[in-house]
Amino acid sequence: MSTYRLNNLLAPRSVALVGASARPVSVGRAVLENIHKAEFKGRFGLVNPRHAEIGGVAAVKNLDGLDFVPELVVITAPAREIPGIIDQAGRRGSAGALIVSAGLGHGPGSLHEAAIAAARKYGMRLIGPNCLGIMMPGVSLNASFAAHMPGAGSLALISQSGAIAAGMVDWAAQRGVGFSGIVSIGDQIDVDIADLLDYFAMDHKTRAILLYIESIKDARKFMSAARAAARVKPVVVVKSGRMAQGAKAAATHTGALAGADAVYDAAFRRAGVLRVSDLRELFDCAETLGRVESPTGKRLAILTNGGGIGVLAVDRLVELGGIPATISAEARKTLDAVLPPTWSGANPVDIVGDADASRYAAALEVLLADRDNDAVLVLNVQTAIASAAEIATTVTEIVGKYREQHRRWAKPVLAAWVGADQHIIQALSGAGVPNYPTEDDAVRGFMHLVRHREVVEELSQVPPAMPDTFVPDARGARQIVTAAIADGREWLEPVEIKHLLEAYDIAMVPTYAATDVEQAVAYAKEIFAQGGTVVLKIMSRDIIHKSDVGGVVLNLTTPEAVRAATSDILARARKLRPEARIGGVIVQAMVVKAKARELILGLADDPTFGTVVVFGRGGTAVEIINDKALALPPLDLQLARDLIDRTRVSRLLKAYRDVPAVKQDAVAMVLVKLAQMAADIPEIREFDINPLLADETGVTAVDARVAVGPPQRKFVGSGPANFAVRAYPSQWERRLKLKDDWRIFVRPMRPEDEPTIHEFLRHVTPHDLRLRFFAPMKEFTHEFIARLTQLDYARAMAFIAFDEATGEMVGVVRLHSDSIYESGEYAILLRSDLKGRGLGWALMQLIINYAKSEGLKVISGDVLKENTVMLEMCRQLGFEVKPDPAEPDICDVKLKL
After folding, report:
1. Does the keyword Transcription regulation apply (predicted)?
2. Per-residue model confidence as pLDDT tens digits over 693-733
3. Whole-model pTM?
4. What separation in angstroms does the CA of 677 have from each of 471, 500, 502, 684?
5. Do 46 and 147 fall within a single domain?
6. 847-857: per-residue pLDDT in tens?
7. Are 173 and 30 contained in the same domain?
8. What is the domain range of residue 335?
9. How far apart are the first and last CA of the chain?
């Protein structure tokens, strides 16, 4: 697993620092002093070959001189010494190392490679190099050179920038916000963002995870970890380089539209990660997520002593997609009784500028009890009439009592005291009330909570591997593409594109390739015979944008006009592009649909995230209009609808004036088909349909361009190697017949299986649960089951078995691969009353076959020695069974594939 040994690094019981310097102003000395100041409770040793003591701490010459084995080795020594230190630590049995030092280099023969090799030899994990360090308040460990140690709390921060991590610590100290952990990852020699997402997602002390990202190395691994984490707790990201453009010049409109930052945005959206634009917004997110749970809806009640600021808050709320809550008739009646007659009578609840603490208390209690809102925002503009500090104290008391009465779940209460003194901020923060400097920040904080709830709901949707509403001719389409590549071509011919679209049931206007004038006239006559008009386009592999050379002529209605236009197009192209290969002209039926909308749909190739689906407003000025949205495939119909809805042109697809609405889901279905085409044919590099005409009758592609080339494998594991997100693997659904003609249906687990899992566990005895989880299990929380059911189908897979006759769940087997996709750890659990009927054997064989298909080299597991039935089955399946040297009650089982 990617969290292998991370607990030893982030919650170690013993630490050694190698390389602390005697110089007062040095990284090594700062790390030593920080470890000392934080009062680390475990064993600590200092290693320095040149000094017997540093800063009053005795030192030994090397790790062998310590009288204990440090779980974590912190390294601030010169780069050249680091591989040797890691090797020595591995021989002693250390779990891992934090490399603060820089300068290891990259590439074959580098110190970077030597350090990795030394660590892998002993199964060590490495954080860094070139990083600020780690700060883990829960175990009083500050192995960093940051200026301050954060207090304990519920936020985790993972940062690619040491400066950003240090800045967050300083901000948190001022706001009373604590952290469950801060990790500066540096160059990610081993432990990366995805590993730490996995770790903090499973950490019960962490309420939310904050990320600062500059770039992502392994997109599929990141998407896997981010999607899993975001399902159980909020994940918020700041990504630098938002204005950077893609590294390569794009040959198609879709390639140009799919700029690097736009793709990151699409990836974060698909992963369920909340993206914020800057550090201030990240701080606001931390303020909100670190203190309250997400609301059940997005209806916000606003309590204020200033009408203007209340209206500004409502404006911002509506702009961001929130809903100003209505005041129920019962609540309004109560407010009339406790407030002066000059109160606003609606939301925002303006209790007038002379409002004192008692008036705030009366109104707040009513709003908290009102079921017509999901959260309350309390605003205060300081006046000379009432004490802002007294009002803040009263609000915190009311909120405290309310939370005490509603321990299972209390609606969020947020606050903004405009121009507040520090002691007011501290009072609100100390009571766990998220507070902000302005009403704008507060509303944004509320919407972050709303967005997280929506994200969790969106992530429960599972896109199918193949939409079942159409069956494409994938084989025929692939033959078209492979033939073009074998011919040394990078672009498909127009007629080939028409056949490619036909294979996926995407309509295109009648299209013919004419090599000379007379052939063009002959094809045109066929179109005229059907009552149509003709458009001519230059046919050249070297002229991608035809209009650049006047290579398009419209509205031709006679053979003579076609003859003259063909001659003109060919002559003009040869004059303007003498080096281009001219193959003739494309003859197409001209589609005239006055009320049709021009759209662009296509595929682009991103160097980090692989294939991206693009949708937007079409035409020749698509880059100028820049009305587009991106998504990572695979897509189902709902995901395609969401993609469309994120553009301005989506509004034009609806009916307006005398223009009927575009046929329902016609455009969305084309997007689903394109995504499936990208999965079936990874040789497609870029794909433009521009324009796609859409109206009440359906959709028709008028022009398209397709770039092809040998597939470039981006991601390990099965499934489309060009997809950063794995599809639901429906191909692994099975029907099995076991002993006594017992018929079982097995399929990959889905997020909506959570209630089924809860019911299944009622049929498993406490003894069997202990054998599975190695400890008595009295309660299974939503968070615990969510982690089991929310799979990415990349590193994690689980098969769930049902009795076909009763529909009841009878067993489950799961596999989680390590971070480098070489080995996987299995687990299996059956209903206790159905054991001994061959189900366990069948599920184990299935997971072994799955691991083989994924290219894993080893399956392993931990089995209690008393679980003799499982151990015997493992031996029969070919597993090697050995006692665990560290745990006498456990056996390690391993199967080489």
Report:
1. no
2. 999 999 999 989 999 999 877 787 777 889 998 878 888 99
3. 0.84
4. 11, 9, 12, 9
5. yes
6. 999 999 988 99
7. yes
8. 295-433
9. 18
